[in-house]
From TrEMBL:
Main location class: cytoplasm
Top-level taxonomic group: Bacteria
Listed name of the protein: Ribosome-recycling factor
Residue ranges of every copy of the Ribosome recycling factor domain listed in the record: 23-185
Function recorded in the entry: Responsible for the release of ribosomes from messenger RNA at the termination of protein biosynthesis. May increase the efficiency of translation by recycling ribosomes from one round of translation to another.
Subcellular location: Cytoplasm
Encoding gene per record: frr
Family: Belongs to the RRF family.
Key words, A-Z: Cytoplasm, Protein biosynthesis
Gene3D superfamilies in the cross-refs: 3.30.1360.40, Ribosome-recycling factor
GO BP term (any one): cytoplasmic translational termination
GO molecular function: ribosomal large subunit binding
Pfam families reported in the protein's UniProt record: RRF (PF01765)
The species this protein was found in: Yoonia litorea
GO CC, alphabetical: cytosol
Length: 187
């Protein structure tokens, strides 16, 4: 092992975990036919002159398996929250009850389930690309060190270490996708 070169594989793994975390957040926003407060995370509301997440303008609850409610704290924002949900592409029709917005979650049909599995696949591919880019960064560092005099044995050692970390996180992406697709297709 060359004492001069030490690739920080922990940093590489930490950055790859970020890609996995992002993937899980994106997948949580996909509707599976069951109510979930996390499906509203990507929805932003124009509130007080700034784009704000829904959970910062009201309390999001899941009182029943097929219902999400939002108790909006400021009466003046109820219309804006309702509009943001309608325009979000979630395919949910909000119902107003004073300052409470109710979101009945309709049953998904087979065609919509297949579309959602494709979207989940796109999210997973995006995560794989991020992980591969991080792998490339690690490999570039190794090539630079090789040009600076690293031995071929050390180069092979570090390349295999980077590939091992990459394979581990690609496998996590695949397993996460498989789980989500099974959840979406479950009737």
């Amino acid at each position: 092992m060359s004492e001069e070169f030490e690739l920080d594989t922990d940093d590489l793994a930490r950055r790859m975990k970020g890609a996995i975390s992002n993937l899980r957040t994106e997948l949580a926003s996909l509707r599976t036919g069951r109510a979930s407060g996390s499906m509203l995370e990507p929805v932003m509301v124009e509130a007080y002159g700034a784009m704000t997440p829904i959970n910062q303008v009201g309390t999001v609850n899941v009182p029943e398996p097929r219902m999400v409610t939002i108790n909006v704290w400021d009466k003046g924002l109820v219309g804006k929250v309702e509009k943001a949900i309608r325009e979000s592409g979630l395919g949910i029709n909000p119902q107003l009850n004073g300052t409470i917005i109710m979101l009945p979650i309709p049953e998904l049909n087979e065609e919509r389930r297949r579309e959602l599995t494709k979207v989940a696949g796109q999210y997973a591919e995006s995560a794989r690309v991020s992980i591969r880019n991080l792998r490339r960064d690690g490999m570039d560092q190794i090539k630079k060190a090789k040009a600076d005099g690293m031995s071929e044995d050390d180069q092979k050692f570090w390349e295999s270490a980077v590939q091992e970390v990459t394979d581990e996180y690609i496998k996590i992406v695949d397993e996460t996708l498989e789980t989500k697709q099974a959840e979406i297709m479950q009737v």
